[in-house]
Amino acid sequence: MSDEKNLKDGLDDMLGDAKDGAKKASDKASELADDAKETMSDFSNNAKEAFGGTTDNKKLMAGILGILLGYLGVHKFILGYNKEGLIQLGASIVTCGFAGIVGFIEGIIYLTKSDEEFYNTYQVGKKPWF
């Protein structure tokens, strides 16, 4: 009987320890989730600010998207050039993506221009290509 009682006590202790560990893990997970939410909120606010959430100049967003997704014409759509965006997309499909070099080059051109020059050329002047 003594061995059974010792075994039961040992199992009860192990169960208690497991419950305590699970509670600590749950608390830590909640803490990490809260930190992640705060970090994402900060990132989102900074991205909005960097990508034109507070300004009309879309240079940075159009440049980065031109380099990364230029073959899809995304940078054209961002600037309001829907017809040119569709042309870019169609050309990329027909050439199996080779026409994407145009978007890549345009992304580099966008990023190398000054903010004022980019704004005047592509947003005010509406120059659709290069």
Description:
This protein has 130 residues and is mainly alpha-helical. Helix content is 78%, strand content 0%. It has 6 helices and no strands. It is elongated, with a radius of gyration of 28 Å. The N and C termini lie far apart (89 Å). The mean pLDDT is 80.
- H/E series: HHHHHH
Number of helices: 6
Q: What value does the Rg take, in angstroms?
A: 28 Å
Distance between the termini: 89 Å
Q: Mean of the pLDDT scores? A: 80
β-strand amount: under 5%
The outline comes out as elongated
Q: Runs with pLDDT <50, length 5+?
A: none
Secondary-structure-derived class: mainly alpha
- The residue fraction in helices comes out at over 70%
Quick one: how many beta strands? Answer: 0
Largest sheet: none
What is the secondary structure topology, with strand pairs?
Elements: H1 2-50, H2 59-69, H3 74-78, H4 82-94, H5 100-112, H6 115-124
Quick gist of this model?
By secondary structure, the chain is mainly α. The chain has six helices and no strands.
